[in-house]
Specification:
This protein has one domain. The chain has two helices and nine strands. The strands form two sheets. The chain has a six-stranded mixed beta sheet. The chain starts with a strand and ends with a strand.
Length: 131
């Protein structure tokens, strides 16, 4: 479940104590949500196991979801996951209200671990985070 807040970004920060790393486990039924530091025009075709392990604290989940801004310019500095989402409690996330604006849309790409290739391969592209 995602709880959308209409409060300003800084108010949403009050719901949790420490900032999130660039990996968030909302619940056991959903893949971990990542924010990768590389900025690309679209989803990457694959992600290296080592890069994912660095972001997930050494874990290699079977599936994972990667967030990216739909319309960010190529020279945009990638923000942190906690600038967009905050875990309120297990299974509930507060969402920065600015991403409800179509120009600030956030997309999610889903990857699946391919043990033969030794990487995560893109499975689904461009799902809207708020849908």
């Amino acid at each position: 479940m995602i709880a959308v807040t209409t409060h300003h970004h800084h108010t949403a920060r009050a719901y949790t104590q420490p900032p999130l790393p660039d990996c968030l486990h909302v619940n056991h039924a959903t893949p971990p949500l990542l924010k990768v530091p590389q900025r690309t025009w679209g989803p990457q075709a694959c992600l290296e196991l080592e890069d994912v392990a660095r972001l997930t604290g050494g874990n290699h989940p079977h599936r994972l979801a990667v967030m990216r801004h739909a319309f960010a310019p190529h020279d945009h500095v990638t923000d942190h996951l906690d600038d967009t989402l905050r875990l309120v409690r297990h299974g509930t996330v507060a969402v920065n209200a600015t991403i409800a604006d179509p120009a600030e849309r956030v997309l999610v790409d889903e990857y699946v671990r391919d043990d033969v290739e030794g990487s995560y391969v893109l499975q689904r592209v461009g799902m809207d985070l708020l849908r």
